[in-house]
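Lecture notes, part 5. Sequence design as translation. It can be helpful to think of inverse folding as translation between two languages: the language of shapes and the language of residues. The source text, in structure tokens, appears below.
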């Protein structure tokens, strides 16, 4: 609900839940908001601060659970921290790339009381950098690339909607004559009925859109993240196109697709800077080519086919669009119906489609529509759900009844988990395992949700409900993506093409002989050991947050040391791991995204000294002790404890030096060893005299 509210209104949505099971019930909703960058604040109850960690009744470590799926989270144990924390939470949720923030408040903090004054001063979070601005010279370069392009395409993503850049993008597009392809979440960011609108791209997009992308020589991607549902097979994706990526989150740059130019900043700012630098153009040849692609497809469009007395879901979507004059706010669930809606309901305005994109959360629609209703009390709202997804959150009908909420619901009752059935048909020889559905009597559910009876002014709408809502299209009306059987959808962004044409399987006309750029995909270079230094706020949970980032991305940390710095409240982490240049850049960008990370240094970028401490217990009896001690002496290792059969030595130095000592001591028998992992420090620019200790050590080692 909070998510639906936020998407429809552009404001921060709020969800409140009790401790334990109430909090864990929020998890799917939080993950949904995280993947689609939706600003929500979730407030959960927690057991009393003295009980934390004791497995108390209804205790869950919800900050731990939600750590990887929140932009940030807090555990508040003191009443005086509640107000400032909530202020920060709202600020973090809505600023920069928005996202979910969770605030877990202990029972004692909730029950205590205090006087407080609400401060309107800006929130100060030293490690949080939500704003970025594209560099002027990069914007100029982008303008030149746009001028030089013959077959450019603009990608309109969710960022266009979020930044409120719709009007500006339209102005830019009309000036430059560049056609626009939209992502699912970008629908409505550019008017679907505009002559320059191509429609939705990607796996479920129209074939002409994907073909045009494959033929394009320039992609200007605005506020989107090259999701795998958009690109399909990266090796063959838009290989002829140069790519400019306008994106607020630096960690998205070069994540999936290598781009030629990154404009890191808010889409609205970037496009407004770009606008005066581009010339007015009509691109007759290119738009003619796209019109031809589109024209071919239209003949095969389901809208042009006879229905033979059957009700096809696509026709329902089209009718709904026609009857609501395209003005309704539509909230969809996840599945085939979602894709049909995306194709046949032409969204001309932003924030009129609320749908779960990144996570694809079934059960999203009904509660999200309730939230959207609170955001938009006067709009006509339609829920479009599948018979499967609707049942997942049908309990919200009680909320709808309780709050006396008006919603129109269309259930595409095809008797199947249709989207999965489609995959079973295409790729698993039609083994329809667990996809046939038996639904409750959905019409009756409708009556149940309206305990006070329909308001009179709704009578006309109700008649329309009966025509297009809650209808069964029957299994016969089950429409699969319009492509030949056996074609590999997941591999390419081939789209649901009427001709079943896979734009990636076959190079589009006129492109066959062009040179294919090999550098589209992030190439894996042999990794080497890299050392990162992160200065972090000395707060509980920060270490967890940093390491979670590495775990999620399957990076194996070679060593991690944490210690104090000379600055009060600031700790320093030294992380050593294998990483190539691309990975290192992404690690740095992702570390910077963590709110408590103040500064990151990738030591490969600068001259650094790195040292490690090791304690080694090695077998040494009266016969071997002199030899062992001699070895230690050569390596300048200090013997710090001598026992009957063993001694302990201590060595500080580079990892290589310690490795060397370990190799020499191994034949004597190493009983136990501990290494701290490296700590590192970037050399000061003023120090001209090299690292004195290392040159001294070097000479000793050589000796
Ligand atoms: C919570 C959840 N479980 C499973 C899935 C995988 N999934 C994606 S679409 C789909 C089928 C949806 O069926 P239905 O709601 O009837 O919609 P249809 O595809 O038939 O239009 C499933 C199971 C999911 N996205 N979310
Ligand atoms: Mg279904």
């Amino acid at each position: 609900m909070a998510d639906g509210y936020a998407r429809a209104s552009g404001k921060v949505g709020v969800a409140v839940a009790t401790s334990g099971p109430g909090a864990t019930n929020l998890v799917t909703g939080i993950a949904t908001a995280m993947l689609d960058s939706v600003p929500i604040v979730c407030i959960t109850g927690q057991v009393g601060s003295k009980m934390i960690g004791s497995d108390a009744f209804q205790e869950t470590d919800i900050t731990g659970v939600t750590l990887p799926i929140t932009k940030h989270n807090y555990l508040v144990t003191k009443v005086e921290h509640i107000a400032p924390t909530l202020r920060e939470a709202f600020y973090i949720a809505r600023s920069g790339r928005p996202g979910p923030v969770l605030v877990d408040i202990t029972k004692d903090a909730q029950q205590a009381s205090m006087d407080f004054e609400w401060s309107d001063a800006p929130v100060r979070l030293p490690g949080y950098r939500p704003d970025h601005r594209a560099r002027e010279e990069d914007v100029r370069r982008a303008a030149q690339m746009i001028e030089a392009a013959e077959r450019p395409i603009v990608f309109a993503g969710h960022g266009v909607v979020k930044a409120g850049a719709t009007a500006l993008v339209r102005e830019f597009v009309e000036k430059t004559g560049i056609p626009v392809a939209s992502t699912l979440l970008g629908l409505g960011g550019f008017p679907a009925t505009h002559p320059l609108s191509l429609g939705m791209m990607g796996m479920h997009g129209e074939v002409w859109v994907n073909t045009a992308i494959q033929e394009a020589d320039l992609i200007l991607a605005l506020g989107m993240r090259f999701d795998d549902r958009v690109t399909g097979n990266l090796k063959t994706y838009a290989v002829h196109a140069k790519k400019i990526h306008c994106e607020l989150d630096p960690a998205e740059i070069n994540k999936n697709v290598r781009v030629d130019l990154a404009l890191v900043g808010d889409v609205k700012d970037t496009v407004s800077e770009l606008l005066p630098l581009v010339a007015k153009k009509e691109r007759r040849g290119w738009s003619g080519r796209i019109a031809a692609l589109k024209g071919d497809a239209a003949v095969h469009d389901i809208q042009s086919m006879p229905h033979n007395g059957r009700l096809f879901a696509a026709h329902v979507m089209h009718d709904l669009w026609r009857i609501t004059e395209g003005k309704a706010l539509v909230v969809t669930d996840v599945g085939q119906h979602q894709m049909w809606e995306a194709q046949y309901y032409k969204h001309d305005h932003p924030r009129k489609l609320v749908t779960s994109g990144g996570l694809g959360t079934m059960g999203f629609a009904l509660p999200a529509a309730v939230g959207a209703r609170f955001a938009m009390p006067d709009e006509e709202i339609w829920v479009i759900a599948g018979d499967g997804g609707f049942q997942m959150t049908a309990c919200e009908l009680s909320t709808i009844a309780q709050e006396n909420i008006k919603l129109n619901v269309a259930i595409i009752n095809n008797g199947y988990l249709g989207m999965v059935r489609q995959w079973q048909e295409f790729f698993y020889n039609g083994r329809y395992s667990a996809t046939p559905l038996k639904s409750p009597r959905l019409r009756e559910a409708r009556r149940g949700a309206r305990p006070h009876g329909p308001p009179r002014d709704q009578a006309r709408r109700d008649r329309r409900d009966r025509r297009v809502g809650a209808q069964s299209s029957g299994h016969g009306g089950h429409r699969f993506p319009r492509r030949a059987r056996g074609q590999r959808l997941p591999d390419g962004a081939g789209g649901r093409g009427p001709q079943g044409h896979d734009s990636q399987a076959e190079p589009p006309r006129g492109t066959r002989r062009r040179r294919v750029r090999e550098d589209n995909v992030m190439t894996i270079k042999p990794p080497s050991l890299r050392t990162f230094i992160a200065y972090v706020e000395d707060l509980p949970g920060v270490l967890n947050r940093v390491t979670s980032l590495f775990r999620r991305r399957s990076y194996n940390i070679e060593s991690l040391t944490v210690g104090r710095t000379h600055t009060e409240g600031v700790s320093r982490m030294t992380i050593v791991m294998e990483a190539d240049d691309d990975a290192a850049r992404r690690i740095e960008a992702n570390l910077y995204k963590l709110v408590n990370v103040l500064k990151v240094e990738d030591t490969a970028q600068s001259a650094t000294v790195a040292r490690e401490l090791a304690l080694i217990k090695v077998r040494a009896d009266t016969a071997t002790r002199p030899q062992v001690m001699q070895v230690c002496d050569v390596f300048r290792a200090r013997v710090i404890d001598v026992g009957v059969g063993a001694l302990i030595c201590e060595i500080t130095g580079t990892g290589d030096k310690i490795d060397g000592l370990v190799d020499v001591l191994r034949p004597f028998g190493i009983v136990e060893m501990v290494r701290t992992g490296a700590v590192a420090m970037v050399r000061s620019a003023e120090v001209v005299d090299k690292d004195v200790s290392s040159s001294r050590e070097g000479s000793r080692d050589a000796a």
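The translated text above is only one of many valid answers, since several sequences can fold into similar shapes. Confidence is low (pLDDT under 50) at residues 451-519, 688-703.
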